[in-house]
Amino acid sequence: MSKNKIIITLTILILAIVTVAVFVMPYFKDTNTNIKNVTSDVKLNSKDLVNAYLVNEKESNTTYTGKVIEISGKVKSVSFLNNRNTVILYGLQENYGVICDVHQSQVAKLKLLKINQKIMVKGICKGFLKDVILLNCYIETQINE
Q: Chain centroid to CA 26: how far?
């Protein structure tokens, strides 16, 4: 290998590492924070949160992403796949919702949830893909209706 090819290969490798560090790692930052006793920055219902992202995703990212938020809503589904424990809350429209990745300490509570049960969860908002994503969620209150 010539000296120029080695320099080019090393440069590309360094740029790839820097790109991952700058653009990918922030999505994993602070997701292990114990938020059980942290005061929520925002409290709202799942339908309003989803609607805010559908109306203006950029503004909603500024308002919610990276913040501890408390969401109330009705359970759409519960999942225990691939070592991920999640509850999905209904959004304003059938195709959208709030995916809550539940903290390991909350699995027993998660197993007791029923479809359409109204609950409150607190988690760190990570943004919007097709659904709003909350990480490290704690089930704060179960409201029986």
A: 13
Return the bridge partners of 62, or none: none
Q: Which string of b and e fits 20-39 if b means at least 16 CB within 10 Å? A: eeeeeeeeeeeeeeebeeee
Number of H helices, E strands in the chain: 4, 6
What is the length of the chain? 145
**What whole-number distance in Å separates Cα of residue 48 and Cα of residue 93?**
11
pLDDT-derived band at 30 (thresholds 50, 70, 90) equals: very low
Count Cα atoms within 13 angstroms, Cβ side, for 12. Answer: 6
What is the DSSP code (8-state) at residue 34?
A: -
- pTM across the whole model: 0.73
**Distance separating alpha carbons of residues 97 and 116, to the nearest angstrom:** 13
Q: Greatest CA span in the chain, whole angstroms?
A: 72
Return the closest-CA partner of residue 64 out of 130, 125, 1: 125
Cα 110 to Cα 4, 80, 133, distances in angstroms: 57, 9, 17
